[in-house]
Design goal:
The chain is elongated, with a radius of gyration of 40 Å. The strands form three sheets. Strands 2-3-4-5-7-8 form a six-stranded antiparallel sheet, with no helix packed on it. A two-stranded parallel sheet has the order 1-6. Strands 9-10 form a two-stranded antiparallel ribbon. The longest helix is centred in the middle third of the chain and has 68 residues. Helix 2 packs across helix 3, helix 2 crosses helix 4 and helix 8 packs antiparallel against helix 9. By secondary structure, the protein is α+β, with helices and mostly antiparallel strands. The chain has two domains: 317 residues, Outer membrane efflux proteins (OEP); 116 residues, no CATH class. 22% of the residues are buried.
Length: 496
């Protein structure tokens, strides 16, 4: 009797401790698809993925804007200057200080356009300046440039615009695919947490049932020990089993709550919400071909894009090192009209032509091998990138091959383990009835119970692995094998 009270006390204590973790305020029944949809719509990870893509989107928009003409209004207003300025006489070369007392105002409008093909820049601008000189002789001067065109063209230089034209669209496309991959990764984590909760819930329910059944069998063994059909050893074995089962109830409940909180975190719920997962035995009849997986991976995922970007960046670094090492020249040309006058109309009369053309250059004579070293360093880095690309392609093929094999065999594994679970549960029921009638031993009953628990755990694990393998292949390929279509996003909906 004392032992019975101890067992009951342990059950109550474990339940009380476990349920005191956090009171539950709401319950939701969810299928796997519903859980995935919830996590993709309101989880923190989904929000992070969205904002990461939005950042990439606006970076690409900024790049596109840099290729378009820009219009700038500039000016310098109310620039008052009263000071002493050091001047040198043209006649005798002597120096003296003269008072400067003036007010300057200027304003202009400029249109600029970068030329991606050549790396040059075209400027078209118009400006107007006014200088008011005060003092002994007051004087007003206007200076105008109604229209002026300037062109700056680097020669034999590194063309950043050309390389940006190649790389930036790839970076944007990678950002789109990265967002889809992030959402598929979230799907994998959600599915894993979902089946962990299913397994933990079933283990808890099983522990309650086992504890109840063991108690009944212990009571039966007590009566049979009196008539000698059950030995003392067998009875003590059941007593030990009853204690273990009572402890298992509390442990399983704690694990179930931990799994619940993990899933809640991915779904965007707090710990007071209880999710009731629905076990669906449905398994889609999908056989995935390795060639299709490889093709979709290279076409849709970030894998091939990232390799292409890495190679372009390495090639760009080599081009820059070569350009910085050699002769640098720049052509500067300016054509326009200008005039000065004491009044605003006079500043626009009889406009004078202005032409400025010149070439600046820099020729390294001796740099102690600095330029050559930078070029060789860039080339070495390029070769490293090429080697890494080859290695990553080989690793990717192996990864995809293993993933395809795992998925294609897992469906049959699930079917087999479900059958094993049903058989083990039926056998456990039969052994229990035999024990009730006195034709089965305690050892047989315990073994049947363990086999049933293990078979159930194996089936739930295999079912979880099936969907994990499936969503992993979706993550690698960004392709829905069940619906037979690529996974894409609507950019306008995300930005709006």
């Amino acid at each position: 009797m004392a032992l019975n009270k101890l067992i009951r006390f342990l059950i109550v204590l474990n339940l009380a401790c476990a349920t005191s973790i956090q009171p539950l305020s709401a319950q939701y029944r969810m299928t796997l698809d519903e859980a995935i949809a919830t996590s993709r719509s309101q989880s923190v990870m989904a929000l992070e993925a969205k904002h990461s893509f939005v950042s990439t989107y606006w970076a690409y928009r900024s790049y596109l804007a840099s290729r378009l003409p820009s219009v700038t209004l500039y000016g310098n207003l109310m620039n008052y200057d009263r000071s002493l300025t050091l001047l040198q006489s043209y006649e005798d070369g002597t120096f003296k200080y003269a008072e400067t007392f003036n007010l300057q105002n200027s304003m202009g409008l400029q249109v600029s356009q970068n030329i991606s093909l050549t790396g040059g820049r075209v400027l078209l601008y118009s400006d107007l300046s006014r200088i008011d000189q005060f003092g002994v002789n007051n004087k007003l001067t206007w200076y105008t440039q109604p229209v002026t065109m300037s062109y700056i063209q680097p020669l034999f230089a590194y063309n950043q615009f050309r390389w940006d034209k190649k790389i930036e669209p790839l970076e944007y496309e990678k950002g789109k695919r990265k967002y889809i991959e992030d959402m598929e990764n979230l799907t994998i984590q959600t599915a894993s947490a979902y089946f962990s909760l299913i397994s933990a819930t079933r283990n808890y329910e099983s522990s309650l049932m086992n504890c109840e059944n063991t108690g009944v069998m212990r009571d039966i063994a007590t009566e049979r020990m009196k008539i000698g059909t059950v030995t003392k050893d067998e009875y003590l074995q059941l007593e030990l089993r009853a204690i273990k089962d009572s402890l298992q109830v509390g442990e399983c409940l704690v694990k179930m709550r931990e799994a619940q909180m993990q899933l809640n975190s991915l779904l965007g719920f707090d710990e007071s919400v209880e999710i009731l997962p629905v076990v669906e035995d449905y398994l889609p009849e999908v056989v995935i071909d390795y060639d299709l997986v490889l093709d979709k991976c290279l076409k849709n995922s970030t894998f091939s894009l990232q390799n292409e970007i890495n190679e372009l960046q390495a090639e760009s670094a080599v081009a820059k090192a070569k350009a910085d090492r050699g002769v640098t020249m720049s052509l500067n040309a300016r054509l326009g009209l200008s005039q000065t006058g004491s009044s605003l109309p006079d500043a626009y009369k009889d406009l004078l032509d202005q032409e400025v053309v010149g070439v600046s250059f820099s020729i390294p004579i001796f740099d102690w091998g600095l330029g050559k070293g930078k070029v060789q360093k860039a080339r070495a880095a390029q070769e490293v990138v090429r080697a890494q690309t080859i290695q990553s392609e080989n690793d990717n093929r192996r990864k995809l091959f293993v993933a395809v094999g795992q998925f294609n065999t897992q469906r049959q594994q699930c079917i087999a383990s479900k059958r094993a679970m049903d058989v083990a549960a039926e056998r456990y029921s039969i052994i229990m009835e035999k024990f009730r009638s006195g034709t089965a031993t305690v050892t047989q009953l315990t073994d049947a119970q363990n086999d049933s628990d293990e078979a159930r755990t194996k089936y739930l694990s295999d079912l979880g692995n099936f969907w994990n393998y499936y969503y992993t292949l979706r993550y690698y390929t960004l392709y829905d094998f069940i619906k037979g279509r690529d996974i894409d996003i609507d950019v306008t909906e995300m930005i709006d």
